[in-house]
Amino acid sequence: MRTEGDSWDITTSVGSTALFVATARALEAQKPEPLVVDPFAEIFCRAVGGDWAGVLDGDVPDHQLKTPEFGEHFVNFQGARTKYFDGYFRRAADDGVRQVVILAAGLDSRAYRLPWPDGTTIFELDRPEVLDFKRGVLDQHGASSRAERREVAVDLRDDWPQALRDSGFDPDKPSAWIAEGLLIYLPAAAQHQLFTGIDALAAPGSHLAVEDGAPLPDDYFAAALEEEKAATAQGDPRLFFQLVYNEQCAPAEQWFGERGWSATPTPLAEYLRDVGRPVPGPDTEAGPMVARNTLVSAVKA
């Protein structure tokens, strides 16, 4: 379970979820017609090894990401989510935005794989252990970022706005923000604090993209949490419900819309259909996750 002030590296607690997502992106890239190809996702998985590499080679057929009731849909979800946010950043760049802020950057490789315009600076915020792992792996493979990349080693529960400014962020210039796979790991009060920090630092003309999610029904969440705890006690290493907060301060579209942003929500199920991927049914393991998820993009007037 989460505790106040808890910490992690890339293989533990919340940090391991970045590896889970990277593995899904790597599996998407193996498809004959992938929605998106992130060549660095596989590099991260193989750097850690074990099942993270084995599932890519087909050596772990019972891995959660290989199951038809969850894994196949989750891989589709990650492919679609990545495609959506890649397109968002291209639009922001086309609008002349040259400051990018990736909150809880994890193993996001966009600084290395997207075609950024000259003069772009990308600020990646995450815990120092996560940033150290990422930098070490990419340096070992001789990867070069395609924009100026600045690491901001900070816990988002601390004073990250000041840390961002100290790293050279200019709040008087437009910026492009992303909170992808982040909000579920924050309680409602911390979500509000995060949104407030973004709004305060974003100049007019700034862009924002958020992966938003309505809370699951309390009885469903409680039952899933107890089931996962029992599995953990029996040695099952998989964690999800013990890491997340089933809370929401307000839908991102509403919160930012009330503060002068023009926000456009796209339900995940709708976007999956748009890109030609199946939507899991409500009785599948992945169904509730997809049904509650919305991809939101916004521009500050």
Automatic annotation (TrEMBL):
Its EC number is 2.1.1.-. Pfam families: LCM. GO terms for biological process: methylation. Gene3D superfamilies: Vaccinia Virus protein VP39. It is an enzyme of class 2 (transferase). SUPFAM superfamilies: S-adenosyl-L-methionine-dependent methyltransferases (SSF53335). Keywords: Methyltransferase, S-adenosyl-L-methionine, Transferase. GO terms for molecular function: methyltransferase activity. InterPro entries: Ppm1/Ppm2/Tcmp (IPR007213), SAM-dependent_MTases_sf (IPR029063), SAM_mthyl_Trfase_ML2640-like (IPR011610). Belongs to the UPF0677 family. Exhibits S-adenosyl-L-methionine-dependent methyltransferase activity. This is S-adenosyl-L-methionine-dependent methyltransferase. It comes from Mycobacterium kyorinense.
